[in-house]
């Protein structure tokens, strides 16, 4: 990038940034409380059980974060149509052969740490976009299985509509196991995601990290003209 002129380009709109950080908060709360629900700690106390509502609080936090996660996800689906071209659904769903070619190119760069061969994408590169699509599908799975686990103890018509989920999987126990297993998928994805964000910010120098705070990236003038941004 030496000797190249850079232009400051607005990439991530405010709704995308709000979605991202709400998701961070919701997933963090869901993973912590979900782990405690799946592996309840043995706490010794002399207090009356009625005065210790710790597990009730944990469940309340889990359900609250789950509904925030669900409605946030629905909003992101809407914004993939209403937002700018960097937020559009076409960035996440493979639609042609070039998409897969770019995925393998970025994979080689990320795995073999190829310096000097950075793939310069203004928005998401194809690999990142595809992985977000996979996580979107996993998110739908978590929403459906979570509502299925709650349905039997709920009177709300919306939640009761998922009463079929445990029967589909064979039992509540099976649903809980799948729900818990997918939690680890989110944890692993988060660790890889954070690492790659820092890695690409370091090798590309485009403000990858700060862009999810202010929305701006620094783009080479030549690529900016080729992109013809909105």
Helix and strand layout, with pairings?
Blueprint: E1 6-10, H1 14-38, H2 54-82, H3 97-112, H4 126-151, H5 157-160, H6 164-169, H7 172-204, H8 208-214, E2 216-220, H9 221-227
Antiparallel strand pairs: 1-2
Helix pairs in contact: 1-2, 1-7, 2-4, 3-4, 4-7
Fraction in beta strands: under 5%
Low-confidence stretches: none
Q: Name the CATH superfamily classification.
A: Transmembrane di-heme cytochromes, Chain C
N→C terminal distance? 24 Å
List the quaternary state of the chains. single chain
Radius of gyration from the CA trace?
A: 21 Å
Strand order of the largest sheet: 1-2
Please give the number of β-strands.
2
CATH class: Mainly Alpha
Helix proportion: 55-70%
CATH topology: Fumarate Reductase Cytochrome B subunit
CATH architecture descriptor name: Up-down Bundle
Overview of this protein structure:
The protein has helices at residues 14-38, 54-82, 97-112, 126-151, 157-160, 164-169, 172-204, 208-214, 221-227; strands spanning 6-10, 216-220. It is mainly α and 230 residues long. It has a single domain, classed as Transmembrane di-heme cytochromes, Chain C (Fumarate Reductase Cytochrome B subunit), CATH 1.20.950.20. It has a two-stranded antiparallel ribbon. α1 (14-38) packs antiparallel against α2 (54-82) and α3 crosses α4 (126-151). The two termini are 24 Å apart.
Write out key terms for the chains shown.
230 residues; mainly alpha; Fumarate Reductase Cytochrome B subunit; two-stranded antiparallel sheet; 9 helices
């Amino acid at each position: 990038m030496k000797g190249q002129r850079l232009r400051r380009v607005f990439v991530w709109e405010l709704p995308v940034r709000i979605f991202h950080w709400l998701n961070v908060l919701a997933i963090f709360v869901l993973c912590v409380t979900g782990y405690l629900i799946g592996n309840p700690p043995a706490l010794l106390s002399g207090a009356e059980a009625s005065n210790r509502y710790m597990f009730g609080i944990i469940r309340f936090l889990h359900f609250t974060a789950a509904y925030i996660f669900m409605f946030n996800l629905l909003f992101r689906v809407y914004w993939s149509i209403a937002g700018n071209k960097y937020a559009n659904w076409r960035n996440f769903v493979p639609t042609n052969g070039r998409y897969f070619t770019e995925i393998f190119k970025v994979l080689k760069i990320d795995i073999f740490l190829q310096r000097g061969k950075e793939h310069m994408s203004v928005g998401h590169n194809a690999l990142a976009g595809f992985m977000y699509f996979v996580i979107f599908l996993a998110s739908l799975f978590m929403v459906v299985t979570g509502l299925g686990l709650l349905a039997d103890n709920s009177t709300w018509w919306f939640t009761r509509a998922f009463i079929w989920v445990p029967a589909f999987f064979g039992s509540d126990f099976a649903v809980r196991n799948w729900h818990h297993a997918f939690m680890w998928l989110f944890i692993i994805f988060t660790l890889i995601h954070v690492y790659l964000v820092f890695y690409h910010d370091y090798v590309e120098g485009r403000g990858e990290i700060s862009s999810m705070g202010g929305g701006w990236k620094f783009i080479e003038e030549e690529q900016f003209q080729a992109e013809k941004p909105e």
